[in-house]
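Pipeline run #58 for the internal structure catalog. This entry was flagged by the ingest filter as a single-chain record with no existing model, so it goes straight to prediction. Upstream metadata was stripped on purpose; only the residue string is passed forward. Reviewer on rotation: M.T. Logging verbosity set to normal.
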Amino acid sequence: MRNWLFSKTRKGFLRLLVGRPAPQASAGAGKCGRMRVFFLLFFCISLRPGAAQNQSPVTAKTSTFIIVRDIVVLGNKRTRRDVLLRELDFGVGDTLDLIQLPARFERNRKWLYDKDLFASVQFNIGNWDFETHQAVITLTVRESWYILPLPTADLADRNFNVWWRDHNRSWKRINVGLSVYHLNLTGRMDRLTVTGQLGFTQKAEIEYRRPFFDRRKRWGFTGRLSFKRERAVGYRVEDFKERFFFNEEDYSLRRMEVRTEWIYRPDVRTTQTLAAGLHANRIVAFVRDSLNPMFLSGGGRRELFPSFGYTYRHDGRDVNLYPVRGRLWQVGLSYDGALSGRGPDKWQADVAVEQYIELTNRWSVALAGKLVGTIAYGHPSYYHQNSLGGESDYIRGYEYYVLNGQDFGYIKSSVRFRLFDWQIAVPFGRLVSETGKVRFRLFLAANNDVGIIRERFAVVQNPLSNVWLHGHGLGLDFVWLQGRAVRLEYSRNHLGETGFYLHIKLFN
């Protein structure tokens, strides 16, 4: 009887959660069916607050929640059940508001998608005891390929725009290689990455990330070993452009890094990271003697130094790559030391905040701000300067300029309107979605950025330092899957220069 009452009184809610169409009424429902409808109407009215003089407040309140009796996980062939449950923001015994439950399921579904492990994620409710409000939640997943050998193409320049215009789209400046990812090595969402790369920058790198190793699943770690060597190296800024030295006989710059990070994650949205590393860099004599004697710290050809850092991060965005709602904020403190006087001896602090607001089904607003400050700098050098550029921190309209310094800050804003939203069948689509179709969206964005970078030691080389920078314009953002995006932007800077710029964001 309780199951029948729930299926009728909460028909639309159950249809949304389970994802099934409402059952069709049988042809012979007859008088019995009409009596049931009458009884249901009377029952629903009796639940309305204030409908009866003697109705207790507890009864009215408890009709709006469920208690999670159990969580059943289906479809996980490799990923461990306890690992999946750790990634949810609710657990067995929690009380969940019925009104907020669809949005909460959707938030957790997107969070699991962001792990790049699942082609489909679905939440259902079953075995609902109407008197005790206890129910069983079923999480059904379909795992994607977890071993991915992917060819890589990386530009030797700061961004795509510099390579396209300033270096005439030279194929020689493209680094090509192969990265092999195992996204779920032991079933604990641990990732192993092995990378080999040839070109301007040759690289050999191995990294292993394990999100947790303790019983309570709060502590994890990352380890990385990396070797890089480059024939071409930027050594100075002149006329807003970086000058490069290319060595055909030897490698101009060699780098080695050993780094480990200890990760504390008390909940699915909050992460604290304590990092330590050892770095060794070596430059050829010609760069130090003839091009820039302060390329490395202390004016030497070699440097060996340890690094330490702490980061606190809270990520409440719906997705990582192209969010439309939620907030991210992060603070950090780092130190790059010096061994035997060789090293930058540099303290740095940073804070970043991002806010995404979904105004309507089509309109949304994106706001982002960041401050980076060098607290102390014992051995200033060109190589260890901060940069306002690249694909992470940049001001629209200044993509062609090299903006180096010690401190910078910016505020970026975008008002976005979704023009189209398509579901398109693609080859191998079943690897990334339940239906085999991939979601494609197109946004029109109005952008406005303002920022500044401070240079204390080489102001002549950086004439745009210590000056407020302003860029604004329009953009078309092409987004697919969970948020992978290609952005084509038309921007104007404070110098009155305009141009088209391309930005690509494909990976977390």
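catalog note: DSSP finds eight helices and 24 strands in the chain.
catalog note: The first strand starts at residue 65 and ends at 74.
status: ready for reviewer M.T.
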